[in-house]
Amino acid sequence: GTRHGDDFQDAVGEYVEADARNRGDVCERTTNTVGRIPRSKTGDFVLTMGPESVAAGGAIAIEAKQEQGYDLKSVLDEIGKARTNRDAEVGIFVLSKLVAPEEMEPLTRYGNDIVVVWDAEDCMTDVVLASALSLARALVARRGVVDKERAADLTELDNGSPRTPLGWPRSSNGQERSPTMERRFATKPND
User: What is the number of alpha carbons within 13 Å of residue 63 lying toward its C-beta?
Assistant: First the structure.
């Protein structure tokens, strides 16, 4: 039989919860909980990266839909709202294959949002949802690394460090000296 709206949402939730347990993450069902936006319950699940994760505490908002009428623009609008509403770095919109426009790809990334077309009745499509979850975790982790690097760069600036953002030493006149240039200047041709 086919799953309708709530059943589809439950199927997505079961899949995400099992995946989270296997990775030491926490999946919270937020379907009936108002988020940061007043009176908004957008964002059906929030996946929070566990303490063992590179991006511990990072959050992924997940929206699951099996309703007619969603095109790419409405999907991206809604997952953007879900991300904001759930204070998440990354969003995954899971659209049922039963209602997805034919031209929609099984998995596509748009910045920090991932759009997935999934068939709850066909375990062969589970790889697409699994890939979306892995990609989302990687995006959260990458963002965490970038934030740490930015913080380190700002600390270096505050400390008046003479190193460039790439970490190359500066020459006496303040110019960046790449390791390649250092070698080039160190090896002089025979006269």
Answer: 28
Q: What is the mean pLDDT of each run of 10 residues along the chain (191 residues)?
A: 72 96 95 94 96 90 96 96 97 97 95 96 95 96 72 67 52 54 50 48
In order, the DSSP letters of 1-33 are: ----HHHHHHHHHHHHHHHHHHHT-EEEE-TTS
- Is the CB of residue 142 less than 8 Å from the CB of residue 112? no
Measured distance CA(83)–CA(2) in Å, rounded: 28
Q: How far is CA 147 from the centre of its chain?
A: 14
Enter the tokens of residue 132: 């979306």
DSSP state of 51: T
Q: What is the pTM of this model?
A: 0.76
